[in-house]
Amino acid sequence: MARPLVISDCDEVLLHMVRHFRDWLDTEHGVAFSLDGASFAQSMRRGDAVLQEAEMWQLLNGFFDTEMPRQTPIEGALAAMAELQREADMVILTNLQDRYGAARLAQLRAFGIDVPVFTNQGPKGARIRRIMDEHGADRAVFIDDLAQHHASAAEHAPRIGRLHFCGEPAIAPHVPCALGAGHAHARIDNWAEAVPWLLDHLHQKEPA
Fold this sequence. Notes:
- The protein is an alpha/beta fold.
- Helices cover about 40% and strands about 15% of the residues.
- The chain folds into two domains: about 5-15 and about 70-200, Rossmann fold (3-Layer(aba) Sandwich); about 20-70, no CATH class.
- It has helices spanning about 20-30, 40-45, 55-65, 75-85, 100-110, 125-135, 145-155, 190-200, and strands at about 5-10, 30-35, 45, 50, 90-95, 115-120, 140-145, 160-165, 185.
- Helix 4 (about 75-85) packs parallel to helix 8 (about 190-200) and helix 6 crosses helix 7 (about 145-155).
- It is globular, with a radius of gyration of 17 Å.
């Protein structure tokens, strides 16, 4: 029988991203990035002007091209990953273009998280279903900071345990809640509380 499986996002779950993106935009591009919960496109301004969506994507890709070494771990994330890996297999499912997959793998390995990395674009549910089928796990959990991915997971892999987790305090209060929407089983934004919930879910006698 396959071990239980943890499928986790990376940015704002394991590593801080938006705070470092904000600082880079300010110092290198003269762009103000507000962490008040608005969409990326509406949060980025040069002076009084909101950036065009094309430039927003150019800057976001530019960050991942050169600035991933800026990213730092979410408090408690590294210890949490080590504890979870004693009980389960783990993969990272990150919404980055495929060309960033090797860099993300190396980035996480440098922090001691040496697990498979899958890149994805768009909703994650179908990819979650494929990963679960390939792994053969009867019990699995999914961790992500964005509600839309929990909705997609609920549609495509309804038996997976779904934890909505946002480890960036600046944006966590503004993120639409997947638990409130009925698409996640829990909303926890710190690893000290998240690990016990995840372990309990992974060790349930019935599949998630």
